[in-house]
Amino acid sequence: MEQKLTHLQWGNDLLALTLGWDDATPVHLTHIRSAAVSLHFTRNIPIVEIMTARHGHWEASDRLIHTTLGASMRVISSRQWQENGSRFLNVMQESIQDGVQATLQLELPDGCVMFRSTVEIRNTGTEVLSLESVTSWATLLGSPDGMSPDPGAWNIAQCRQEWLSEGRWGTKNLRELFPVISQGLTGHDPRSKHAVVSTGTWSTGNYLPMTLFISKYLGAAWFMQIEHNGAWRWETGDCTRDAYMATSGPTFDDHAWSHELQPNETFRSVPASVSVADTMQTLAEQVTAYRRTMNTAGDEIRHPHVIFNDYMNTINGDPTTQKLLPLVDAAAQVGCEVFCIDCGWYDDSGDWWPTVGEWKPSVTRFPNGLEEVTDTICAKGMIPGLWLEPEVIGVNSPVAEQLPDEAFFCRRGHRIVEQERYILDFSHPAAVSHLDSVIDHLIRDCSIGYFKFDCNVSPGAGTDIGGISPGAGMLRHLRAYNHWIDDLHRRYPDLILENCSSGGMREDFAQTSRFQVQSTSDQQDCRLYPAIAAAAPLAILPEQAANWAYPQASMDKETSAFTLVTTMLGRFFLSGYLNRMDTAQRALCAEAVRTYTQAIRPRLSKAFPFWPLGLPQWTDHLMALGMKDSDTAIVALWARRLDQGERVRLPIPHLQGVKADVTTLFPTQSGFGPWHAQWEPTQGLLTVDIPACNEGARIFQLTMPD
């Protein structure tokens, strides 16, 4: 008799997953191993959990897990293969009595220790299947071989996001969320959960769609991210002998989402990606490597251009030829490579918020045409850029009358209005055709090589055009928007795209994997920005993290250096009235650009972030961010509100035992107070003596001797 397969191992040389199942249980994770950690699971929960209008929970709760359909699935086939630099696994399950198939689809890029998971649902029955939630991934947290699982052994790190205060990571022990309640006496798991939910199109407007689970006691850590630019939910909870994590896209309960699946139709969940390691630092490196591998925006991100944008604390949305030309000249002098004209370039009325949508250059702001400015930018050796908000049409724009209602978000027969704007639905061909013609015209006639795509409104649950649920309409639009971005890269391979949503309100990986540049905030106070900048590389790639620097002629040298340091370990992103600066002030900006292009940029796209003082907290007086490769560490150190001098010790473990050379990379001009830095190889500590200051910052480099 042929032996029936009840488990399989899948992975690469760096990561291996063992999946199990049998005649009584659906597919689940039984073991996961990387070079850093090996975890086993003493209990099984289904990876795939499904809620429909007819199928709820087998144990009452409002969790994503413990679903009747999830428990009833049985494996019918599996397939492994390699393609385009990745390894793939499909595990097909079916609930015959319910007429539902669910295929778990895993992808593991070569050289990565992070995999992507999606689930495809097929209706194999004869009636409509009304989906209400589908997990992309669910598993217990597990424990190392020879140790017992314990929810209290884990801390959870999650990131609070808010306009102007992005990147605020905080950590709690799971027992603070789930106290011991002696549920074993009942024979049931607890019913509560800790769920984090995002609604609308600001996918990171409240929290990041990612979390870390870290256990120093177990020597293990997990990282999970949901790769979706709209509605999502992740959750964790106590499963009595272990804790679990689960991820999903939109749900009925949270997002007014349901998907009517006709017989033989399929639905694909939003992706989630997962990594496992021994420490947060190892996870950060693995996640960074995965994001680099999976970014589809082209080669420019590996050699990031230096960008000047006229908006922040400068022109502020009121550009004219007269204002721009002196800035263009000054930006070129300090070494900028892209000059982006931000909002307002299309406005003739002075009240442009409700009139946007045609995206035609203003004739009053630019009497000789916008081309006069963009041609000057080109003549100075820079790439011209423009701000655009592609997903909206002002209520008073002529385009609002030219496009049909079906091309806009609608609910109950009415166009949705947010802040005097309609929202385009990119699943409608008229919306896409309009934006394609706008982009084609601006590239052809104005030589635009860089677009800053902004999104300053969020339309709630979604659109019900076509009789679908609002959540389904939102998901349809966002997938169509992603396709439009992919098509732009196909049509214009050298085009540079910046993703901005009122700063960092859409920093999910569905967006950041398609863009070369990611705005991290709209924060205008240079004293507050370092907390955002230092945290950014845990959410996005360092080389795409556009942290604003906006030096001004009114600033003293230390404050100017402080704001310049904020941008230098990411995508160099400059603003400020450079043309009003004196020679020394402009020379400091030029030194920052030169240091970046000569010493930092060549390493940045291959370096990994680390945090010598831990992840920054919003009110910290001292913050540090490092970038490291095999033989070098570059460290940015900020000080705020130091009433007296302070000695700070920065651990740099990967150079411990190495007699590294320490240099100050920036600033090196005369006139700056000394920040004495000394490397202690035995302890692996960089010791820096910081003088009293309101705000000050330095960048140090540690290099292994030849």
Strand-helix topology:
Elements: E1 7-11, E2 15-22, E3 25-34, E4 38-40, E5 50-52, H1 68-72, E6 74-83, E7 86-95, E8 100-109, E9 114-123, E10 129-140, E11 143-144, E12 155-160, E13 168-173, H2 174-177, E14 194-198, E15 207-215, E16 220-226, E17 232-238, E18 243-248, H3 252-255, E19 259-261, E20 266-268, E21 272-277, H4 280-294, E22 307-309, H5 311-315, H6 321-334, E23 338-341, H7 370-379, E24 383-388, E25 392-394, H8 399-402, E26 410-411, E27 414-415, E28 417-418, E29 421-423, H9 429-446, E30 450-453, H10 470-491, E31 496-499, H11 509-512, E32 517-519, H12 529-535, E33 545-549, H13 557-568, E34 571-574, H14 583-604, E35 608-610, E36 622-628, E37 632-642, E38 646-651, E39 661-666, E40 676-680, E41 685-690, E42 693-703
Parallel strand pairs: 22-23, 22-34, 23-24, 24-30, 30-31, 31-32, 32-33, 33-34
Antiparallel strand pairs: 1-2, 2-3, 3-4, 4-11, 5-10, 6-7, 7-8, 8-9, 9-20, 9-21, 10-18, 10-19, 12-13, 12-15, 14-17, 15-16, 16-21, 17-18, 25-29, 26-27, 28-29, 35-36, 36-37, 37-42, 38-41, 39-42, 40-41
GO molecular function, one term: alpha-galactosidase activity
Protein name: Glycosidase
EC number: 3.2.1.22
The assigned CATH architecture of the largest domain is Alpha-Beta Barrel
Count of domain modules: 3
* The CATH homology group name of the largest domain: Aldolase class I
CATH topology of the largest domain: TIM Barrel
- What is the overall pLDDT average? 97
Helix/strand/pairing category? alpha+beta
Largest sheet: 10 strands, antiparallel
Q: Over the alpha carbons, how many angstroms does the gyration radius reach?
A: 26 Å
Helix content: 10-25%
Question: Count the helices. How many?
Answer: 14
Percent in strands: 25-35%
N-end to C-end Cα span: 64 Å
Would you count the extended β strands for me?
42
Low-confidence runs of at least 5 consecutive residues: none
Kindly provide the name of the CATH class of the largest domain. Alpha Beta
